[in-house]
From TrEMBL, chain A:
It comes from Herbihabitans rhizosphaerae. Signal peptide: none annotated. This is Putative Zn-dependent peptidase. Transmembrane segments: none annotated. Residues 195-354 form the Peptidase M16 C-terminal domain. It comes from the Bacteria. InterPro entries: Metalloenz_LuxS/M16, MPP/UQCRC_Complex, Pept_M16_N, Peptidase_M16_C. Gene3D superfamilies: Metalloenzyme, LuxS/M16 peptidase-like. Residues 1-11 have a biased composition (Basic and acidic residues). One of its GO terms (molecular function) is metal ion binding. Coiled coil: none annotated.
Automatic annotation (TrEMBL), chain B:
Signal peptide: none annotated. SUPFAM superfamilies: LuxS/MPP-like metallohydrolase. It comes from the Bacteria. Residues 220-243 are annotated as: Disordered. Residues 220-234 have a biased composition (Pro residues). Residues 19-135 form the Peptidase M16 N-terminal domain. Belongs to the peptidase M16 family. GO terms for biological process: proteolysis. This is Putative Zn-dependent peptidase. It comes from Herbihabitans rhizosphaerae.
Length: 452, 430
């Protein structure tokens, strides 16, 4: 078959056409919700969003610990919390949940124990009953603990072979030294020493309602569901409060550390600097400055190192939040040969953001994106539940989310420029480069990098 | 215009052949727009592995009315998100935006359907970007391409089914502008595509906007769709892959399944079987292989190399497992065969089926609730089945799969007609 040339394909007789204007945006309907604290000290946020006959559940329990074995113990606890109670064995837990179309997962990090799942709305009582059973009566049978412990050791080995995990661990150490926040993945030897009694003791001490938050979003009546939760979880009580992670030290700028990974064909660049949390008056401007830098596809960083130079498939910058603060992170993965060049462009864009701050068009673009992506992000039950669970540790809720578009509309260009200069100065960043150091000698020429 | 309505969906075809699916739903003020083209990596030419995916990248690089980068900027400055992905039998593109951006999304999709601007400079840039994507997702990580790249060359013998859809670096580098022009003219005709709009829309207004932007995309010949059929393996075929980054050995077992389109009921029985085998702690393989014996760290089973309903015939049933070094692949295979034999001899219980049905109903509701997956699911159902409402009928169809049908499916997964791929850690390097 004959075909046209690429040039012929890219042209029509009528020529280029104008971009149509935006239509009129219908606002989201207000969310009917209840945000309350039960007698046990558990905060419950219940929101009606009846788009499908489902309910999304998120439970966040502050779960800090200073014991050097805390990470190992809490990982085993997370893996075994749903493997049986006095009344149910592992299979019964799975069967009861599956029959009402429910999934429930547990994971833990240095900051919190998180349970997340969903259920057909008609089966919510069953999900709450299984949840209550586990929270008040998880049995941690020795055989289940032993098996999950062994699997965890294998999974840790798997995870530590991932370049992204190697980079994250190195970055945490570079930013925070030996702070408990860095213990995101336990040592295999610590996990291997965990026994069932340890896990039971940790559960008694740390799986607590006071200070925790439960988010339910879906086809529910918020008032009714709060009283259902109150009854279902009535046995989950304690005078003690769940333990928050101590405040983190500020991230200080400094040299990037090169971490040797022989044979790597690609390097992980990970940079970080101190930022401010959502409760800070500067946050909306910081959010827009971050979008301009690397927070979405049409950002300066992505347009430079991906779309112009082809150094990377994946580059981004984003904010990471902890209960006490926030940091900026910049990620890019690049071929070894262009790693130094990519870092150079990254530093150039950091400097340029402060010196040549975004103009009116750039600010409008990121503002629209921030407002629009919040709207689409909240349009599903799961998205809304996860947003609320993330805001909850700051004491924020539905009201903050509803008011945030207005906050973004009020940000001025000057405020974005100030945030750019304050938070994105190249000297404020520290970080790591994971890769084959033998192929990264170009970094020496840049300076500000420590090679092995 | 003849507009067919069913299950709240509106379905019609423009004179240029473009099929349209509208799915109005005003519960949230957002809208999804997608275009599915009936070409995937099974159709790319020999000597040009990875071309369909590379071409997907080029469709974002500008068109007659849009300079390079403009597509991204217009979607994002409208508050929206976008992406594209290449599958065995189709390539999809989508935007999800606040509903005020509907006309813009239609304009952007129409402009690149009518006149994409493909230049040598953008081609070379995107070859570099795709190579970085492959380094990130395959070459520089453990279990990269497992099993979607590594299993097909063991199970299949013909180029379309067996080759690597991400592509070989040398072949990607050889891609020329003329290859791009030929590919576009062959496969990206409006008559070879489906446009889907779902979410906050007014049907009459959406039809008028679609006519305005897509109505004058000229009709072009639509290629005859080839059959990719090939016989199943005549025995057990084996393959081995040494993975320099993997810490533990792994294996993937691949079987052929009934034609997902013409034998849908048989295909669904295999999907239920996959869940009975490996979904949840109570499933057969999880119980036995992960907990009781235990032989493996993790096990999973499913239809389709990327999930079900993403390909026409031939499609693949896979079982994958990661296991300890002292466990031989033969032990895992032996246990798998015993479990399949049990199910072939005695159908699963009513309770096992009820569990599968419950979880599938939930999963499909959740996918429906996410506008991206709803839009893409409707488009793929129209493209592959000519029936977008199939997406809504699936929970019901899944719940009518009988225990006997699952038993028959288990019986069809025979050791003498399958592929076994083993992954051996070949590290040194962490």
């Amino acid at each position: 078959m004959t075909h046209r040339t690429a040039e012929e394909i890219g042209r029509t007789e009528t020529g280029p056409r104008p971009l149509p204007p935006l239509g009129v945006q219908r606002p989201p309907t207000g969310l009917s919700h209840v945000d309350t604290v039960l007698g046990s000290g558990l905060r419950v946020i219940a929101v009606r969003a009846a788009t499908v006959p489902m309910v999304e559940l998120r439970l966040r329990i502050p779960f800090a610990g200073t014991d050097s074995r805390h990470s190992a113990l809490s990982e085993v606890l997370a893996e075994t919390l749903l493997t049986g109670t006095e009344r149910r064995d592992r299979i019964a837990v799975d069967t009861d949940l599956a029959l009402v179309g429910s999934e429930l997962d547990v994971n833990v990090d240095p900051e919190r124990l998180a349970l997340g799942g969903s259920v057909l709305a008609s089966g919510l009582d069953t999900l709450l009953e299984v949840l209550a059973d586990a929270l008040t009566g998880a049995a941690y049978r020795p055989d289940e603990v032993a098996r999950e412990r062994d699997r965890l050791v294998e999974r840790i080995a798997m995870a530590r072979s991932q370049p992204s995990v190697i980079a994250r661990e190195a970055l945490q150490k570079q930013r925070y030294g030996d702070h408990p926040f860095t213990r995101e993945m336990p040592e295999a030897s610590d996990v291997a020493a965990v026994v069932a009694d340890d896990v039971r003791a940790l559960h008694r001490k740390a799986v607590l309602p006071k200070g925790s938050v439960l988010v339910l979003v879906g086809d529910v009546d918020p008032d009714a569901v709060v009283s259902t939760v109150d009854t279902a979880l009535s046995g989950w009580r304690s005078d003690a409060s769940a333990l928050e992670l101590p405040a983190l030290p500020e991230v200080a700028g400094g040299d990037l550390l090169v971490v040797q990974r022989p044979g790597a064909v690609q390097s992980q660049l990970r940079l970080s600097a101190q930022a401010v949390p959502r409760t800070d008056a500067r946050y909306p401007a910081l959010q827009l400055a971050n979008l301009t830098f690397g927070g979405f596809f049409s950002s300066r960083l992505v347009e430079n190192i991906r779309e112009d130079k082809g150094y990377t498939y994946h580059a981004r910058s984003y904010l990471e939040f902890t209960p006490s603060g926030a940091t900026l992170l910049i990620d890019a993965d690049t071929a070894s040969e262009v790693t130094a060049a990519a870092l150079w462009e990254m530093r150039y864009e950091l400097g340029r953001l402060g010196l040549v701050p975004p103009d009116g068009v750039e600010v409008d673009t990121v503002r629209q994106y921030a407002i629009g992506s919040l709207l689409t992000g909240l349009a599903s039950q799961g998205g809304l539940a996860s947003h609320l669970a993330a805001l909850a540790p700051l004491g924020l809720g539905v009201g903050w989310l509803a008011a945030h578009p207005e906050r973004l509309r009020a940000v001025t260009g000057e405020q974005v420029a100030e945030a750019a200069l304050e938070f994105f100065a190249p000297t404020k960043f520290t970080g790591v480069v994971v890769g084959d150091a033998d192929k990264l000698s170009g970094l020496r020429g840049l300076g500000g990098v420590v090679l092995p | 215009m003849n507009v067919a309505q069913n299950a709240g969906l509106h379905r019609y075809t423009l004179p240029n052949g473009l099929r349209v699916v509208l799915a109005p739903d005003s519960t949230t003020p957002v809208v999804g727009v997608s275009v599915h083209y009936d070409v995937g990596f099974r159709s790319e030419p020999e000597g040009r592995t990875g071309f369909a995916h590379l071409f997907e990248h080029l469709m974002f690089q500008g068109s007659e009315s849009l300079e390079k980068l403009a597509h991204f900027r217009h979607v994002q400055s409208s508050g929206g998100t976008f992406n594209g992905s290449t599958h065995p039998d189709y390539t999809d593109y989508f935007e999800v935006l606040p509903s005020a951006g509907l006309e813009r999304a239609l304009f952007l999709e129409a402009d690149r359907m009518r006149a994409p601007k493909i230049t040598e400079e953008n081609l070379r840039n995107q070859v570099d970007v795709v190579k970085e994507e492959i380094r990130l997702n395959v070459l520089n990580r453990p279990y990269g391409g497992f099993p979607w790249i590594l299993l097909p060359p063991v199970l299949y013998t013909t180029f379309p089914n067996a080759h690597n859809g991400y592509g070989d670096f040398t072949e990607l580098e050889q891609a020329s502008l003329d290859d791009c022009a030929a590919f576009f003219d062959s496969y990206y005709a409006p008559g070879n595509a489906v446009l889907t709009v779902a979410g906050d829309l007014d049907v009459d207004n959406a039809m008028a906007l679609i006519e305005r932007h897509f109505g004058d995309v000229p009709a072009r010949p639509v290629p005859q769709r080839p059959s990719f059929a090939e016989p199943p393996p005549a025995g057990e075929v084996r393959g081995e892959h040494a993975d320099p980054h993997a810490p533990l050995p792994a294996l993937a077992v691949g079987y052929r399944v009934p034609d997902p389109v013409s034998e849908l009921d048989g295909y669904l029985a295999h999907l239920v079987l996959a869940s009975v085998l490996a979904d949840g702690d109570g499933s057969r393989l999880q119980q036995r292989l992960v907990h009781r014996e235990p032989l493996v760290t993790d096990v999973s089973a499913g239809c389709g190399l990327f999930g079900p309903f993403e390909a026409r015939d031939p499609d693949t049933f896979t079982v994958t497992a990661v296991h300890a070094p002292d466990v031989t692949p033969e032990r895992v295979l032996g246990a798998l065969d015993e479990e399949l034999d049990k199910l072939a001899g005695e159908p699963p219980s009513t309770e096992e089926l009820a569990k599968v049905t419950g979880r599938w109903a939930s999963m499909l509701h959740k996918e429906h609730d996410r506008i991206t997956s709803r839009t893409l699911g409707l488009g793929a159902s129209e493209l592959l089945y000519g029936k977008p409402e199939l997406l809504y009928e699936l929970p019901g169809r899944m719940s009518t799969v009988t225990a006997e049908a699952v038993s028959v499916a288990a019986k069809s997964l025979r050791p003498d007609s399958r592929a076994v791929l083993t992954i051996t850690p070949a590290g040194g390097a962490a």
